[in-house]
Amino acid sequence: MWAFGCGVVSSGAALQGRWPVAAAGIVLAGPLVCATSQAVNDWFDRHVDAINEPDRPIPSGRMPGRWGLYVAAGWTLLSLLVAAALGPWILGAALFGLVLAWIYSAPPLRLKRNGWWGNSAVGLCYEGLPWFTGAAVMAAALPDRRILLVALLYSIGAHGIMTLNDFKSMEGDRATGIRSLPVQLGSAGAARLACLVMGLPQVAVVAALLAWERPWHAGAVALLLAGQGVLMRRFLRDPRGRAAWYNATGTLLYVLGMLAAAFALRPLAGGLA
């Protein structure tokens, strides 16, 4: 939802008369498509969750039988219907995101079995795809290449955010053959990689904004990145114990930087430099 909003902001298009489309797009990005991905993941991860989080609805039996699968399938169809009503740009993006949501969790591909592939798919769907969609819908055209570049950079950084999510499930992942990055690299190695992958794309965003003569926005992103650096030092001292804490604090600064970059991309009187 946040990334879609950043796409709307970065487009520079006026919201007057287009509030319903923007609001519907945000609902589609979050409570529909993103929720579908979570429902699909909950169903196909029910055996892993039985080890890591046995109190969740499916492994605990509060959602019995195959109802978890029915919810995932029904929410997929509902998402497609809403997306189709909003036009071809949103339908195409929603379809792409939903396909990735299913192949991320479901066999035979089940991209999440390898942290490199799975985290890349989720990072693209959570940041770049909704950003692109928000900008494309408001502009009714392919977004400016600079918007695409910034959306891609924040998608790459989200790969690190997804690594943070994997620390809590290391035991279940090992037991069920899921090669998340904390399993492959160990806690310390995965933590260092997550920080690096989150940090370097933001450095590139700062450099790009400076090149496009947006120094104040570049300074805001740099300041937020510096704040993340301070938090990263604490996180790296105890990766498993502080992964959830850093996901709440460091990721907050990360997404605020996304919004600062989105405002920088709004076309001004003479367009982007």
Could you explain how this protein is built, in words?
With 273 residues, the protein is mostly helical. It has one domain (2-265). 80% of the residues lie in helices and 0% in strands. It is built from twelve helices and no strands. The chain has helices at residues 2-11, 19-44, 46-52, 57-60, 67-85, 88-105, 115-139, 145-165, 170-176, 181-211, 215-237, 239-265. Helix 1 packs parallel to helix 12 (239-265) and helix 8 packs antiparallel against helix 12 (239-265). It is flat, with a radius of gyration of 19 Å.
Helix/strand-derived category reads mainly alpha
Whole-Å distance between the termini?
Answer: 28 Å
Percentage of β-strand residues: under 5%
Helix content: over 70%
Series of secondary-structure elements, N-terminal to C-terminal: HHHHHHHHHHHH
**Overall number of structural domains:** 1
In angstroms, what is the radius of gyration?
Answer: 19 Å
Query: Overall pLDDT, averaged?
Result: 93
Taking the sheet with the most strands, its summary is:
none
Note the overall shape. Answer: flat
Query: In DSSP terms, counting alpha (H) and pi (I) runs of 4 or more, how many helices?
Result: 12
The low-confidence runs, each spanning 5 or more residues with pLDDT under 50, are 268-273
Number of strands: 0
